[in-house]
Specification:
This protein has 7 helices and 20 strands. It is mainly β. It folds into 3 domains: 70 residues, no CATH class; 157 residues, no CATH class; 76 residues, Sandwich (Immunoglobulin-like). The chain has an 8-stranded antiparallel beta sheet with strand order 6-7-8-9-10-11-12-13. A 5-stranded antiparallel beta sheet has the order 1-2-3-4-5, with no helix packed on it. A 5-stranded antiparallel beta sheet has the order 14-15-16-20-18.
Length: 399
């Protein structure tokens, strides 16, 4: 919009607008009064003309339309049904002011408008079926998501989370979850015993993003409550002979962490078509004959030979659905795979850096297929980070 003066006592106001197609310019210009107009219509005439000029984007003139205000037709009066209703104006409803400010209300945007089906399988508990949904407001300040599923035996799992992103350098969050898992499976002459664990947790915290050029660092801190509930399931005879389940108290804690993201890493990725990249990725085969590479090569060749000679012939005889395992002291793992003739393939491992574990008696009496260095050096014990495989005769004895 602009005002044209040109030395005239009556300035002329004109407006130029571009249509959405971007192909035409439309200029609406009130016509300047001339002396001929004053002669024809008199000095007191209020004659006003609007001139519309349509111009193509390349500057070519297309059309000029002049509209005389004297030829305008007045609008008809409002119909009776739309006239002012009778009554006291003070009692009539006041029209809403479209320019009035209203407070921001995100509740309507956060109401879910859809959902997605979810299916999940938990070992020994079967399939769980449920749904997931969520919502976010139009300015991204509030967001949430939730899911829930029900198993065939009536057990439920689910989770929900919420994030508040109003602040520029902080995101507040909260989440809750409930899950089931198989903690231990024990087979004995009395039948099968399953020890199940339900874990419920709730956490609140804050994430502080710190962004720099090509780099993002996320600092986080949270408080958490955790409750674990254990129960036994399985065959009736095995349940009758099982020891009472030891429940743990609710735990409260917290944590802090930091995560890094570096977009510079993507720039530093070598060109896969460059010859230098190919040469750097090419194996140095002569190094396999030098230490320590030669020792590692011999070690893996030995493992592959044991697998081919001892394990591969047993695979058709292994029944995966009858396997059993137990965990001791959060680092000892003992697994048994039943074979024909009452034999079992056994694995014993100490997956921790603390003191040694005792080798189970049934494994100690079996035929050792493989053992890491240090196993059995100081009696029937397993040092830190050690493992052995053995073929065991007879049934499984559970401690």
């Amino acid at each position: 919009m602009a005002i044209e003066l040109d030395g005239d006592a009556n300035p002329r106001l004109y407006l130029t607008a571009r249509v959405a197609t971007g192909l035409h310019d439309v200029a609406v210009i009130p016509k300047r009064r001339t002396s001929s107009d004053a002669t024809a219509f008199g000095p007191s005439s209020d004659r006003t003309s609007i001139v519309a000029v349509v111009t193509h984007a390349d500057g070519g003139h297309l059309e000029r339309i002049e509209i005389d205000r004297a030829a305008w037709t007045p609008a008809p009066a409002s119909a009776a049904v739309f006239a002012q209703p009778p009554g006291d104006p003070a009692t009539l409803p006041v029209a809403e002011n479209p320019t009035a400010l209203t407070s921001y209300a995100p509740a309507r945007d956060l109401v879910p408008t859809g959902w997605s089906p979810i299916f999940e399988t938990v070992e020994e508990l079967g399939a769980f079926a449920g749904a997931a949904t969520g919502g976010i407001d139009v300015i991204g300040r509030h967001s949430w998501q939730a899911d829930a599923a029900v198993g065939s035996d009536g057990r439920t799992i689910g989770s929900a989370s919420y994030a508040y992103s109003r602040f520029t350098h902080a995101v507040l969050f909260g989440q809750i979850a409930s899950t089931w898992r198989l903690e231990q499976r024990i087979e004995s002459t009395a039948g099968e015993l399953l020890r199940l664990e339900r874990k419920r947790s709730a956490a609140v915290g804050v994430v502080l993003p710190w962004q720099r050029w090509r780099r993002t660092t996320l600092f986080s801190a949270n408080l958490e409550l955790e409750d674990r509930y254990r129960e036994n399931a399985g065959d009736i005879e095995a349940l009758a002979g099982a020891a009472p389940v030891q429940q743990e108290p609710t735990l409260a804690g917290g944590g802090a962490g930091v995560r890094f993201g570096n977009t510079q890493a993507a720039i530093d990725i070598p060109d896969p078509t460059a010859e230098s990249t190919f040469m750097r990725c090419k194996l140095d085969w002569p190094s396999a004959s030098r230490a320590p590479h030669s020792q590692w090569l011999a070690y893996y060749r030995r493992l592959l030979a044991i697998r081919r000679r001892e394990i591969a012939p047993l695979i058709p005889d292994i029944s995966a659905d009858r396997r059993s395992f137990r965990v001791e002291h959060d680092r000892g793992l003992f697994v048994h795979w039943p074979l024909s003739g009452g034999r079992r393939l056994a694995l014993a491992a100490n997956l921790g850096g603390r003191q040694a574990l005792d080798v189970p008696g049934e494994v100690e009496c079996g035929r050792i297929l493989f053992a890491t260095p240090g196993v059995g050096d100081h009696g029937p014990t397993m040092p830190a980070w050690s493992a052995l495989f053995a073929i065991v005769d007879g049934g499984l004895r559970v401690a």
